[in-house]
Amino acid sequence: MSELLNRRLALLGERANLSLLEQCLHGIERECLRVTDEGRLAQTPHPEELGSALTNEQITTDYSESLLEFITPALPDPADTLASLDSIHRFAYSKLGNEFLWSPSMPCPLPAEEDIPIAYYGTSNIGQLKYVYRKGLALRYGKTMQCIAGIHYNFSLPEKLWPLLKEAEGFVGTDRDYQSSAYIALIRNFRRYSWLLMYLFGASPALDAGFLRGRSHQLEQLDPDTLYLPYATSLRMSDLGYQSNAQAGLTPCYNDLSSYTDSLRKAVATPYAPYVEVGTHKDGEWVQLNTNILQIENEYYSNIRPKRVTYTGERPIQALVARGIQYVEVRCLDINPFLPMGIDLTESRFLDAFLLYCALNDSPLLAANTCNNATTNFLSVVKEGRRPGLQLQRDGESVDMKEWATELLEKIAPLAALLDQSHGGDAHSKALDVQLEKVKDPSRTPSAMVLAAMAEHKESFAQFSLRQSRVHAEYFRSEPLSVEEQTKFEARARSSLAEQAELEQNEVGDFDVFVGSYQASILAISN
What we know:
The protein is 47% helix and 11% strand. By secondary structure, it is α+β, with helices and mostly antiparallel strands. The chain has a single domain, classed as 2-Layer Sandwich (Creatine Kinase, Chain A, domain 2). The strands form four sheets. Strands 1, 2, 3, 4, 5, 11 and 12 form a seven-stranded antiparallel beta sheet that branches. Helix 6 crosses helix 12. The chain is globular. GO terms for molecular function: ATP binding; glutamate-cysteine ligase activity; metal ion binding.
C-alpha cells in the first residue's frame, strides 16, 4: 500500500475522525424504458399522473418520452437511498396501467427511428431548450443509441474531510481548491481502475438484433433475434459501431479542474463542419442548439463526471468554475436485470469502498500512454472481460486481468474495513468478498448469468428481458406504497404540473434570444 494511502487511512481511523465516513452522500439515478405488455416501446406520452417531466425532481424523462428517469435525494446511508428508489418505482407502477419498466440497459425491440418519441417538456423557454437539445442528439447520434438506459451513482465525501486532509498534507491554497483537486485525483484513479466495475457489474452481454439497424458490427448471432459476444460484460459501454467523430478528439484532461472545464468550454464553442453544414434550423424549425462539437457540456459522454449542484439557470460548467467540485457521478453502471431496481445494497457498499480507494490512493497525472491504456483496458473488459487469460496493460506491461483484479480487491479491503469501522458491522467487507467470488468464478458475474438464464429458458434477449420486467412489475405491484406515501407522491406530481403551467404563463422573452444568451453564458466564464 502507498505511503500516502497509509497516512490517510491512519488519520481517518483516529477516533475523533472515524464518524466522518458516515457522512458520505449517495444518490442514484435510474433510467428505464416504458414498454407495452408485448415488450415493445411504449408510444404513449409521459404519464401525467407522474407529474411534469420538467419540474418533478424525482421522476423525469431522459432522452425519449418513453425513457423514464428516477432520481433519489442524496442521503448518508445508501440503504435509505435505495429505499427511496424503491418507493419511486412503486409509485410509478401505480400509474403505469398495463405498461412495464424494461429490466435491462439495452433497449427492447425498437420501432423505426422516426417513431421513437423525443421527450417533450412544454412551451417554456427552458422546456423548449431541453427539447431542441434532444433533437440535436437525434441528428448527431441517431435516436436508437439514446434509448440505452443506465444507472448513475452520485457519491460525495464529507465536506469536513477535506480541510482535515489538506492540513495534514500542507496543501497551499484554499479548502475549495484542495477539494476540487482531490476529486479530480479520484477521477484519474477511476479512469485507471473502472474496467474492474465493468467485469463485476456489467450486465449487457447481448442485445436485440434490430438495435444495430443493419449496420456492420463485430457481434455474433446468438439466435435469430439476438446478437452477443460470448465473453462480453457490457456491450452498453462498448463502441458498438457508434463512433462520435465530433467527440473523438475531445479528451478532457483530468490534471486539474480548470483544464477539464476549459476543454469542455472549447468544445461547446468550437464549430464542427458536418454540423455547420446542417445548420441550426430546417424549414424555420430548430434542429440543434448550435453547430459546435457539443451543444451543451452534458453532451460529452464520459464514464464519470465531476459535479456541483447548479442554481436555477446556471450551467454545469459555471457551477464548477464558481464553486468547485462537490461530488462525482459514476455513469458506467449497467442495470442488473435480475434486480428489481437494477442495483442493490451489496453493489452500493462495494462502490463506496472502490470510490474511497480512488479518492485516497496516490493518483499521478495521466500521461498520454496511461490515458490510452485506461481506455483500451476498459474496452477490452466490456467486450471480453470473461475471456480466460485476458491480458490488460499496466505500466507498459501485459498483466493477467484476474490477477490484477484480485490485487485491486486486496488493496480496497482496508477501505472496506475502515467504512465498517465507521458504520459498525461488516457490510462493506462482505460486499467485497462477493466481488472476489466473481473474480474467482466468472459464471457469478451478472453478464454470465444473463447468458445462462437465456440458454436455460431458450429465450432471445427480448424474451428474457420481458420475463424479468414482468417479475419486477409483480414485485412492485404486489406491495403498494402506504396511503400516506402514495398521497405525498401524488401531491408532488400535482404541484410539479402547476409549477410547469406557471412557468409557461409567466414566460418572458423570445426563445431565440433565450438560446443566444444561454450560449453566451458559457463564453463569458473566466477561470
